[in-house]
Amino acid sequence: MARRSKTDPHERCCIRPCFGQVGLLDWHATRPTRSGRDGPDMRKFAFILSLLLLLPIGAAVALPFLVPVGAIVAEVERQVEAATGRALTIKGRVDLSYFPSIAVTADQVHFAGIRQGEDLLAVEQLAVRLRLMPLLRGKAEVEKFVLTAPVIDLTVDKQGKPNWDVSLAAAPAPADHASPGFMSDLSLAEVEIVDGRMRYTDARTGMVREATDVDVTLSLPDLDGPLTLEAALLLNGTPIALDLGIEPVRPLLSGGKAGMALRVAGAGTGLDVKGQVERQGEAPLSLSGDLSLTVTSLADLIKVATGAVPSDLPVDDLTMTGKLSGTPSRLALAGLSAKAGDLTANGNLSVKLDGLRPALGGSLSLPKLELDRYLPAPAAADPAAPAPEVGPAGWSKERIDLSAMRSADLDMTLQLAGLLVKGVEVGATTLTLKLTDGRLNAGLADTALFGGTIGGKLTLDAGRQTNALAVLAHAKGVQAEPLLTRFAGFDKLSGATDANIDIRASGTNQQELVGSLNGGGNVLFLNGAVKGVNLAQIVRSAIGHGSAEPPQTDFAEMGGTFTLTDGIAATEDFHLLAPLLRVTGKGNVNLPSKRVDMRLTPKLVGSLEGQGTTRIDVDGITVPVRVRGSFDNLSWTPDLSSSVKAALKDPKKAQDALEKLKTKDGAKGLLKGLLGKKQ
């Protein structure tokens, strides 16, 4: 023992006291020599074996004396920041122990997010304990891993950069998961998250989602056994429970498949997925399996998903089944079969999760829909509620809120077997919907409606400051009377409609949209009638040959082209072709003020029956008619002053018209009409 008195002071104060506690080194050094089996070789072997057994224990006991805890913490913080570019800060107490288990308890652990932002991760307390001896054998047995009150703050800044995007400064080479080396086995006993909170904020859209009271328990006896995870949380104040099972786990480390079962319940919703999880090489995990979804309260589900409280939903329940496949960035559902109330749908759906917002896509086939059953009923008037503000002509000034269109993207194709809207049958059609960053492009294939077809495209842009609308549509052979009666409450016009329109508008309410209408088009009505006025009768009355006829102007063709400027539709080529009448006209329809100002010029052709059996040749006689007034109170009056002006400009033409009147009464009536005199 005397020869050890000259050892290094560091060894005397740190290493030797630790090993001396067991006394085995001194025992082997002073044990007497014996012959035979206990000769020098056996003594050497026993001594080496003792060293091998005691080395890890002694080192673990001695390490706290060799390296101060503060130095270990500082080195860990330095290495993390060097690798990620983010600061790891342990602000509270740190306790370390190495025997019989490696244990670390740290308070107030923070991992930085983006510059001048909230921490990506803040943990009130982190506690880890691993068994030492299994670790030396290549098996990690985690006795305890508990995060107490962690706060995870996920943020996307205005430039679209997420705070969890950590670029490693020097990423290590990918591990060979197939090689049976270090960490060939893993066991997780007590792994928990207690009273956690997670928040997601998108500075570009202002969207905020938060989960609170997050409690998670995870268990993994070994890599060949089942991994189970149970979680409970509050999402937007609604309790959500999650259960996940995966078995076995080992194939997912080296490339392979494992069975998987997932159950999510809450907000009136139950989701079950049974299938498998797969990993191929360095690719992210993927899953596939059978999905079953049952929703007993769509209102509760929408509230949890969007934060908004919906009202007057046409249905409140939903069931859905299909084949699910997915990766962390995309989910797809094939062979979908869904039912909401009495509405059924079949097809395929997918959702992308790696963009600025969720992007839903796919195609669905739907049977004939009685749409009236799913449209909200008109709200009952509330005497106590203030009436919505309206403009002078009754257009609403209430803001049209389309902000929900910016919460997700959409690329869908709907195959409809038909629609029933307000008692109107619409034929089978295909509807395409593409929504990107609040801009909707909708396309309607040619669709049977009221004896004809309609089709077109619509663009609706839910802008940050104002909304924008564009319509490009066409109609062929559509009967005007039932269409206008059903959807506009106007029953004064009949005939088959051929039309093409291209219009645009912008604004935040009805009044602004109507006042900004621009564009144009052409409209033609065939073989119909204008009810409420008989233009031929007006002309007959002007020339003294009025007769009792129904207030209706029949026509073979009526229409023209129009231009829209700031909500005012103007035409210069209106025309109407009737059996005894030709009408041309021009004027405008002021949509913002809901008023009409048109000048029509009817021209009689052929002859009219006078009183008795007298026939009057009236070919070429014209008597202009002025159409003026509000939409609900139009007046139709002869514009006799225009007739006088025309006669003064061309006396010969007026004389020719008079000569065509073969009766004295006819000529007298026409003169009196032109000069505005009473009989």
From TrEMBL:
Give the residue range of the signal peptide.
none
GO BP term, example: regulation of protein targeting to membrane
- Keyword set includes ATP-binding: no
Keywords in alphabetical order, please: Membrane, Transmembrane, Transmembrane helix
GO CC terms: plasma membrane
UniProt domain AsmA: residue ranges = 43-235, 346-573
Claim: Zinc is one of the keywords in the record = no
- The UniProt transmembrane annotation reads 45-67
Task: State what protein this is by name.
Answer: AsmA domain-containing protein
Please report the organism this UniProt entry assigns to the protein.
Answer: Niveispirillum cyanobacteriorum
